[in-house]
Predict the structure.
Amino acid sequence: MNELIDRALDLAKVKGAAYADVRIVRRSSQSIVVKNGAVGSLENYTSAGFGVRVIVDGAWGFASSATLDRKEVDRVTALAVQIAKASALVKLRPVYLGAPVTHVAKYRTPVKIDPFSVPLDKKLELLLAADAAMRAVKGILVTEASAAFIREDKTFGSTEGAYIEQEFIETGGGLEALAVGENDVQKRSYPNSFGRHQGTAGYELLEGLDLVSSAPRVAEEAVMLLSAPVCPSGVTTLILGATQLGLQVHESCGHPIELDRVMGTEAAYAGTSFLTLDKLGTFRYGSPVVNITADATIPGGLGTFGFDDEGVEAQRTPIIREGIFVGYLTSRESAAELGERSNGTMRADGWNRIPIIRMTNINLEPGDWEFDDLIADTDDGIYMEMNKSWSIDDKRLNFQFGTEVAYPIKNGKMGGLLKNATYTGITPRFWAGCDAVCNTKHWNVWGTPNCGKGQPPQVAHVGHGTAPARFRNVQVGVMKG
């Protein structure tokens, strides 16, 4: 493959490119869904191709193909140059990437058990056993156990001399149980919302989820929700569990810090951001206990890698420190406009997409609290966990979330299940009300494998490290029924 990369880079320079890079990507994936005691779907998918990105006359051009041979490399490279020249006619200012990126390296996801080496029969046995354990609970109508495995091999080269080979392995899985009553339908998921947790790890991740032993509880809680009282309405103290807090961080902290959204180069798909450039270093995002970090280096995170799709090394970047907003997610081009260097967040969804700024692992750093102490310290409030629904405006300010389960807290003790729990807020006010975060014992990096952005749309796999946290004066129960 080195020959094809060199050929494309040499041709791009001959045709006038000031810069060029090439990505060759091969992806294999397997998805298994067991539903109501039978195999609902089994998908094995492979994809391979390459993309060429160039700068000509100060503008970007990009083209791609699934055919990996010399003739096609020549055609695609020439097309990318042609597109860049056309773009230069309407470009307002020339692209500047800052200092060269010249890494020559290899990276591979650390795994104990290659998931593609595990026989299909063994995977099905695990999922069928978990599904059966849910179906054994009276009142359950629909059960689903699923698993997903991905291997991606990526080779990157650029005219600046970078040459990087990477192999990524992902494993995920989870459960869903649906209970149906006379006038109600309730769902419980495990270990994350929408039936799946995923990370950069081997088959050991799926084994560690203990799907079979967790299945009865998941199903029983779905049935219990049918007769549970509805979450009350009012302004109260809210404690969010770790998985729900992961989505809260994703939507109200991760997306607004993407610098392309701030600068307006990404807006059509999911909006822009309230975090304008004048807020960098001065804006109070939350209380002093709120510390958020973008970390592409943490083991197991779904946003963990060695190098991004511009050849920039994975980094750990402060985003919020003691409540103050201190950093964006950047590309080489956008960072250069701030006089900075990229913090390595440019990633593409496969060989046929151009890289855009994406979240890595956006983590709320752990605090000092034990979970039981946090509950005991709360006189009156509600604990909510596991996302059920979400909505947020296109500047990432006004939001509303619903969760699968909630529990009232009275005099430092949790009561029984509540259903149809919701809460709403405005991003900086909500995070200003955070007065406690649980410690590392309760902290985990949760995978979000369905983050959409861009047009044509791209799906990124990102992560969020969180532990339960407490928020004061939150409106809850904004929808009854």
Q: What stands out?
A: The longest strand covers residues 38-56. Residues 156 and 238 are 46 Å apart (CA to CA). The radius of gyration is 24 Å.
